[in-house]
Amino acid sequence: MNILVVGGAGYIGSHMCKYLAQNGYTPIVLDNLVYGHHGAVQWGPFIEGSMENVDILNMTFTQYEIMAVMHFAAFAYVGESVTDPGKYYGNNVAATISLLDAMRKHNVLKFIFSSSCATYGEPVEIPIRETHPQAPINPYGRSKLMVEQILDDYQSAYGLNSISLRYFNAAGADPDGEIGEDHNPETHLIPLILQTALGIRDKISVFGDDYSTEDGTCVRDYIHVTDLSQAHLLALEKLMNDDPGGKYNLGNGDGHSVKQVIDAAREVTGRKIPSEVVERRPGDPAILIGSSEKAIQELGWKPQFADLKSILGTAWHWHKNNPEGYGS
Fold it and tell me: What is 2-171+224-250's CATH number?
């Protein structure tokens, strides 16, 4: 039961590989290690390469009997997508088309796509449901929406069945502490906070405290990476049963402000975490919270780590033992 996990050496992809292996599947990892880590590949064969490389794709599909493909290989720095959109459209869209065409060639017609709440753009209602208008405000979000639309066309024309999973804020780490979150550069709030707790950073920057929220700081929906993996497996099994594909939000349906996350991290770590309020970042909505009712009802998804302190606790366990990430 081989599943090709493209981007399987990255943060979410590596956790997916462990979850697949725990549930009787063999993850076949394809990753170019631009942002991934060889040390995160622990549960199946590893092929170093990019999804735009047709020869590597053909070799992989020929060598292994692949049942389905999971795609975690997008570039995901929003600011960089604005300054270098060509990089994002080239990898996130054009290279994904190469992957889909290789799947068609080898008659692998089941695809799980890591999409994003960035496809919605500025929220017009909270919580955000799948019916919310999709009007992304940056090239990263547009690249994700483009792939969703391409997948609709590939399903209609070629019978390639897919499920797109729109994440909110992935967070936390493997509860066993074997793998975790290690980005360079790091832009995610929780690892930045924990690096501050470890003394790697002097302080954590809070981008604005004058939003229309309870304490003035931005509110976000955090979802544990293992709960994300569970949702992907449920989506895979839905396709394996020849059920129709679809699009699902993945979040906890609850939000935490930046100040709340910092305070909770101080409690979990027992460390002083200096913070400093700085200017707002352009384009940051005050509140982003997603409704996952559809995933709960149709996929049978049951998040296990919905509590913020549980999410922080697993992340702290990883960062404390791996202060330099996989370089530790």
Answer: 3.40.50.720
Domain ranges of the chain: 2-171+224-250, 189-220+253-327
- Let me know: does 140 contact 88? Beta carbons within 8 Å: yes
Q: Is 248 labeled as catalytic in the residue annotation?
A: no
- Mean pLDDT over 30-54 rounds to 96
The catalytic residue among 88, 140, 167, 222 is: 140
pLDDT tens digit string along 225-238? 999 999 999 999 99
254-258 mean pLDDT:
95
189-220+253-327: which CATH number, 3.90.25.10, 3.40.50.2300, 1.10.3290.10, 3.30.110.10?
3.90.25.10
